Amino acid sequence: MKVYHGSYIKIDRIDLTLCRPNRDFGRGFYVTKFLHHAQNWAVITGRRHHSQGAVTEFEYVESAFVRSICKIGHFDAYNEEWLDFVVMNRNVNNPEPAHDYDIVEGPVANDKVQNRIEEYLSGDISKARFLEELKYHEPTHQICFCTLNSLQAIDCRLGVGARRYEVNISEPVIHHLMLDFAMNEEKAADVFYTSQTFIRLSDKSAGLHKKTWQEIYEILKKEFNT
Fold first, then answer.
1. Can you say whether residue 32 is alpha, beta or left, with left for phi > 0 and alpha for psi between -120 and 50 degrees?
2. Is residue 224 within a helix (H) or strand (E), and if so which, with residue range?
3. What are phi and psi of 165, to 5 degrees?
4. pLDDT tens for residues 19-72?
5. What letter would DSSP give residue 109?
């Protein structure tokens, strides 16, 4: 699925530590399938940073592999479950993260909806009335990539030769060593960090740093099995 991120600059690397907390689905990197929504947000953020704004296109890979390694939350529409989830994430008094999903997809609490959420929380309108209003709200869409693991599901479309995101390769490789070879975390980490694969990964002239963690893991498995 093609998705878009609107910002004041083009995005060539996702850094989750730069993402703001207490948003609809928590801290994470947000995209939308609606290009015009990303374009509008690029204009807004561009004005704040005195730039023209920019939209970066990505490919969200909804594969069986992604579903096997990621816990995914999905809200089909504005409903009570969505409202309770957004309120939980936007509550600055809740510990962060407020949920354990890797990826969350659903509608957006834009400014108009956010204002009504504040009125609902203050008791000015009932939950039933608020949810009734949401039935007539224009369709919106967002996907939040909340964890390093989730970034395996998103790739930037920068044209020929586009590089994948520089995610923490060690984390998923060690995790899958533990699963596939019944190792504890200490053993799996020792196997990875003392392997020839890791040495080659550290040597940029070998080119392994350009590969996905899945490709690195397959190379490591061949080394481990021999």
1. beta
2. helix 213-225
3. -70, 145
4. 999 999 999 999 999 999 999 999 888 888 888 889 999 999 887 778 888 999
5. -
